[in-house]
Amino acid sequence: MSTNSLGQEGDETARETETLILQRVLSVGQKEIARETGLSESTVSRWNDGEYARWAQVLSFLGLRVVPQSAIVVTPAYLHSLETLAEIGLKAEKKRPGPLGWD
Question: Could you tell me which InterPro entries the record lists for this protein (predicted)?
Fold first, then answer.
């Protein structure tokens, strides 16, 4: 990918996105992608010449991420809340007496 105005974090996100796309393309196969999109295999094959990288940059610029369908995505605020609750629970567990109250 060429240097652009995405910045270092945006460039890294774009690289991660491109990598994920390429891995998935490899696992599914260009023939299947061509069939599902109604395009020729040669058109899909040409996307390897920088088209995936270009779209990865666009997605990064737009503040979007590509994630597997099985991924669960949460906001930073939600994650922070879970971390806080876990920390409170761990502190309470340490203060709790054992099952008999003396161990």
Answer: Lambda_DNA-bd_dom_sf
Tell me the pTM: 0.65
Rounded to the nearest 5 degrees, what angle is found at the Cα of 54, between the Cα atoms of 61 and 42?
150
11-23 average pLDDT score: 94
Tokens found for residue 22: 């390429």
Gap between the Cα atoms of 56 and 93, Å rounded: 45
Is the residue at 69 inside a domain?
Answer: yes
Q: Residue 25's domain spans which residues?
A: 7-95
Angle separating helix axes 51-61 and 7-28, nearest 10 degrees: 130
* Domain presence at residue 1: no
Amino acid residing at 27: S
DSSP H/E element including 19: helix 7-28
Note the pLDDT tens digit of each residue in 18-38: 999 999 999 999 999 999 999
Cα–Cα distance between 73 and 52 in angstroms, integer? 23
Within a domain: 102: no
